[in-house]
Amino acid sequence: MISVSDALDTLLDLVSPMAAETVPLRAAAGRVLAEPVSAKRDQPPFAASAMDGYALKSAEVEKDAMFKVIGESAAGHGFTGRVGAGQAVRIFTGAPIPEGADFVVIQEDISRSGNLITIANHPGTSTNIRPKGGDFQIGTTIDAPRVLGSADIALLAAMNIAQVPVRKQPTVALISTGDELVLPGDTPGPDQIIASNTFGLDALLTAAGARVRILPIARDTESDLRTAFELAQDADLIVTIGGASVGDHDLVAGVTETLGMSRAFYKVAMRPGKPLMAGTLGQSAMVGLPGNPVSAMVCGHIFILPMLRAMLGLATDTPALLTAPLAHPVSENGPRQHYMRGRFDGQSVHVFDDQDSARLTLLAEANVLVVRPPKDGARATGERVNYLPI
Ligand SMILES: Nc1nc2c(c(=O)[nH]1)N[C@H]1C(S)=C(S)[C@@H](COP(=O)(O)OP(=O)(O)OC[C@H]3O[C@@H](n4cnc5c(N)ncnc54)[C@H](O)[C@@H]3O)O[C@H]1N2
Ligand code: MOO
Fold first, then answer.
1. Domains 4-16+169-311 and 322-389 in one fold
2. Which Gene Ontology terms of cellular component type are present (predicted)?
3. Which residues contact 281 (CB under 8 A, 6 or more apart)?
4. Where are the domains of the chain?
5. What residues line ligand 1, using a CB cutoff of 6 Å?
6. How crowded is residue 306: how many other Cβ atoms within 10 Å of its Cβ?
7. Nearest protein CA to atom 41 of ligand 1, as residue
8. Could you tell me the distance, in angstroms and rounded to a whole number, from the CA of residue 299 to the centre of ligand 2?
9. Left (φ > 0), alpha (ψ -120 to 50) or beta: where does 185 sit?
10. How do residues 289-330 score in pLDDT, each as one tens digit?
11. Mean pLDDT of all residues in the chain?
């Protein structure tokens, strides 16, 4: 059995960053920017009014001063003339500041009669002008890699970048194995259960940027499993679920061997997740997850998500674990690194009594995995433990 950190290093070596592709702006949301992009224009492209009011000369601003309104500057339609002494231009938010003006008095501070305005209240010191290029300028760069969120998409749009270079999405083929499994919505026989891991992993990996293909459930025969692997062969990453252990119907190791998999490791000193296997099969990286639902999901968090990050060209440094005091004592840990479901309530962390790796209800209730190193001693209430938010 290898350690979790050795397993992770090995898994990261099995994958490499995907090539870049160019996609239309709207399709770039949630994708990873593959190379830095630079603004093609200044924003705003001209000094612009931040308020609705009157543009005039700051030197003339004082209470009771009067001005003649000589024109209008609206967003999209600037005033082409020049503001002289004693003159003002009616202006609206987003409109270009006319030449000669360097101050906008908001309309609430003005009284108007025909073409004459008077500053009725002291307008304060803010000019109410956004300078040209005040948000960004030609050449302002968005650095890569970066997962593009909604604010980034708005910024790219403002920069007039309509085509965005992003990493291709890794394709992940999910193969569930087992005679006992049927799909959600189907009618299970008396000895059957619903395939759940497949859908949990699909949600986890899709949210992390993968393009997931769920293959038909492979029954517990070598030929069925072989067919599933054939269907999966063009995937960047093949993930099997179940059939990884030592039972008579656990066929993944045997079948992948006959298909020529170069195996990187089998079994990791962790709990849950011990019977994890990995290697390369043809052009694809392959990970065989244990079938127990919690084991499969925990391995998804600990191993598959970092692999996806590597494929997307994102940093793969192990995120620093958070720490919190225990709400109650916990007993000594065994020889495997234990990922224990628990709940952090903002003050302390409660580790659930029952850590059965078949219990999805407890995974859904958990918001943390408390990480206990191998042979970690018994811990008292208030002692700080490491945890990973999930
Ligand atoms: N004698 C031993 N028995 C077991 C060992 C061991 O070391 N010696 N390891 C145990 C551990 S730890 C795990 S984890 C499981 C892993 O077993 P497999 O990967 O072979 O998984 P299966 O036997 O196929 O299934 C286990 C369990 O999970 C259910 N399952 C499988 N796939 C799905 C799915 N897609 N959705 C929902 N549930 C699924 C399956 O019905 C079984 O109940 O082995 C232990 N045994
Ligand atoms: O280690 Mo297995 O993955 O608990 O249930």
1. no
2. cytosol
3. 229, 233, 238, 256, 259, 260, 261, 262
4. 4-16+169-311, 27-41+140-167, 48-130, 322-389
5. 176, 178, 180-181, 193, 195-198, 241-247, 250, 272, 274-275, 290-293, 295, 357
6. 21
7. 180
8. 10
9. left
10. 999 999 999 999 999 999 999 999 999 988 789 999 999 999
11. 96
Q: In whole angstroms, what is the distance from residue 258 CA to residue 225 CA?
A: 11
* Contact criterion met (CB below 8 Å) for 244 and 277: yes
Maximum Cα–Cα distance across the chain: 95
pLDDT by residue (tens digit) across 185-214? 999 999 999 999 999 999 999 999 999 999
Does the Cβ of 291 fall within 6 Å of ligand 2?
A: no
Residue 152 vs residues 37, 132, 170: alpha-carbon distances, Å: 11, 21, 22
- Is residue 195 within 8 A of residue 176, CB to CB? The reply is yes
Length of the chain: 390
Q: CB of 39 within 8 A of CB of 159?
A: yes
Q: How far is the CA of 192 from the centre of ligand 1 (A)?
A: 14
According to DSSP, residue 118 is labeled E
**Homologous superfamily (CATH) for 322-389:** MoeA, C-terminal, domain IV (2.40.340.10)
The first and second tokens of residue 96, run together, are 């270009």
Cis peptide before 145 (omega within 30 of 0): yes
Kindly identify the ligand whose nearest atom is closest to the C-alpha of 184.
1
User: Burial of 42 by CB count in 10 Å (0-12 exposed, 13-18 middle, 19+ buried)?
Assistant: middle
Residues whose CB falls within 8 Å of the CB of residue 150, separated by 6 or more in sequence, listed in order: 29
Extract the runs of DSSP E, i.e. beta strands, from 218-365: 237-241, 262-266, 270-271, 277-281, 284-289, 322-325, 337-344, 349-351
Residue 224's alpha-carbon distances to 184, 191, 252, 283, in angstroms, are 20, 20, 11, 21
Place of tokens 């119907």: 249
ipTM of the predicted structure?
0.96
Q: Find the 358 Cα to ligand 2 centroid distance in Å.
A: 9
The pair of structure tokens assigned to 255 is: 């079948």
What CATH number does the domain located at 4-16+169-311 have? Answer: 3.40.980.10
